[in-house]
Amino acid sequence: MAKARKEVTEPYGFFTDLDSGHVLHGGEIRPAYALGAPTPLEVWRRNLEIVTAILTAAGVDFFAVPGFSLTRPVLGAAAADRQRVCTALAMLCESTGGRLSVPEPAFRESELGLNKPEWARRTDMGDVPLVRASWLWTDSGRDLVFGSDYGCDVEFWTDTGDGRLLAPRHNRISPVVRQGGARVSAPGRLFTALATGAHADLPTVPTRAEFARPGPDHVGFPVDVVYTWVDGADHAWLRRRAEAEQSPYHAESANDARYIDREELRFSLRSLHLNAPWVRHVYLITDSQRPHWLDADAPGLTVVDHRDLFDDLDALPTFNSHAIETQLHRIEGLSEHFLYFNDDMFVGRPVGPQLFFEPNGLARFFPAQTFIDMDPVSRADSPPNAAFKNDRALIERAFGRTVSRMMKHVPYPLQRSVLAEMEKEFDEEMSRTAKSAFRNVTDVSTVTLQHYYAHLSGRAVSGHAQDAYVELGMPDVAERLELLLERRDRETFCINDAGLPPELVEERSDMMLRFLEAYFPVASPWEKALAL
Question: N or C: which end of the chain has fewer CB atoms below 10 A?
Answer without folding.
Answer: C
